[in-house]
């Protein structure tokens, strides 16, 4: 992930010095309904693994003015931004990276200094980095093996847009299938990305017949909540996914959903059909690692990453035991 740190300096110089790790800098998570977020657990572990005195706190709000107020504090080193603030809060930042601009959503901000010493708050999207890094950790050869083959994204929200961007930019698929319960969301995504990335190839899998006819995607990224389909669009989308997963050829499936359990129905079905699978908690950890690299400006050691993965696994096990 050193590429994202190197690119971050195009927006300004580092705000840190040799004693910054011992200073109590603060990072924040802004979003609605974030009481169950696992990000604080992960960031606390990662900060400790880097021997910093930094902290990470939740701010449950959709108030952009409160976000701006936190940015003005000199001890604010960065932020995580989650739903429903990923589009609106980006307006309060000084610059947006290419990823954030093309995806149309911001989930991370970090600080760099202008030539005159002013603090600049830069918005980026590390969801796409988390997807990329998780895939490469599991399948290092995916960049070459996926090239020129189809890929697939399930969903039509912000996470789906991050997945489409990550697949197209780093894995060079021939085209990306989209399966989703609502056609208008897919239409909006297709229109948006054809404007932002003119050469992108997107195909809506909107019938079971189409799903049966297309080649097997080499990589699938799921982004939808794990609940039983009830509405007609949900039932059709589930049927399309089942058809794709039952094809003779198999590939890699990443399901970004991890609540209430990382072992989602989609993941279980893919496992039963012989697919290589990755849980959403793995992606979450890699997203947090990317954020930490931008804030602390250091590559994280694998010990800290393994501790974070172990902690999130244990937390999930405890939550399931309570159900």
From TrEMBL:
Matching Pfam families: Shikimate_dh_N
Domain of life: Eukaryota
Location of the Shikimate dehydrogenase substrate binding N-terminal domain: 29-108
SUPFAM superfamilies associated with the record: Aminoacid dehydrogenase-like, N-terminal domain (SSF53223), NAD(P)-binding Rossmann-fold domains (SSF51735)
InterPro entries recorded: Aminoacid_DH-like_N_sf, NAD(P)-bd_dom_sf, Shikimate_DH-bd_N, Shikimate_DH_fam
Name used for this protein in its record: Shikimate dehydrogenase substrate binding N-terminal domain-containing protein
């Amino acid at each position: 992930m050193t590429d994202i740190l190197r690119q971050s300096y195009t927006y300004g110089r580092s705000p840190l010095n040799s004693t910054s790790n011992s200073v109590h800098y603060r990072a924040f998570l802004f979003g609605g309904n974030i009481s169950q977020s696992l990000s604080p657990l992960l960031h606390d572990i990662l900060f400790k693994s880097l021997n910093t005195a930094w902290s990470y706190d939740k701010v449950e709000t959709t108030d952009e003015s409160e976000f701006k107020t936190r940015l003005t504090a000199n001890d604010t080193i960065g932020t995580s931004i989650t739903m429903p603030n990923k589009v609106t809060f980006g307006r309060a930042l000084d610059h947006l990276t290419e990823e954030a601009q093309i995806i149309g959503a911001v989930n991370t901000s970090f600080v760099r200094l202008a030539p005159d010493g002013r603090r600049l708050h830069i918005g980026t999207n590390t969801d796409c980095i988390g997807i990329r890094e998780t895939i490469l950790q599991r399948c290092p050869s995916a960049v070459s093996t996926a090239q020129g083959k189809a890929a697939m994204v399930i969903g039509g929200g912000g996470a789906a847009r991050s997945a489409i961007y990550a697949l197209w930019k780093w894995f060079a698929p021939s085209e990306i299938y989209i399966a989703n319960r609502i056609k208008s969301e897919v239409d909006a995504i297709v229109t948006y990305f054809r404007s932002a990335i003119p050469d992108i190839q997107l195909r809506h899998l909107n019938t079971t017949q189409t799903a049966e006819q297309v080649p097997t995607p080499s990589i699938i990224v799921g982004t939808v909540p794990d609940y039983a389909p009830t509405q007609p669009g949900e039932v059709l989308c589930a049927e399309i996914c089942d058809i794709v997963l039952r094809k003779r050829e198999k590939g890699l499936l990443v399901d970004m959903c991890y609540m209430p359990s990382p072992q989602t129905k989609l993941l279980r079905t893919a496992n039963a059909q012989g697919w290589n699978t990755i849980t959403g908690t793995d992606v979450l950890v890699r997203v947090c690692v990317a954020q930490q690299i931008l804030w602390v400006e250091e590559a994280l050691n694998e010990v800290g990453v393994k501790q974070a993965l172990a902690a999130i696994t244990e937390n999930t096990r405890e939550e399931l035991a309570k159900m």
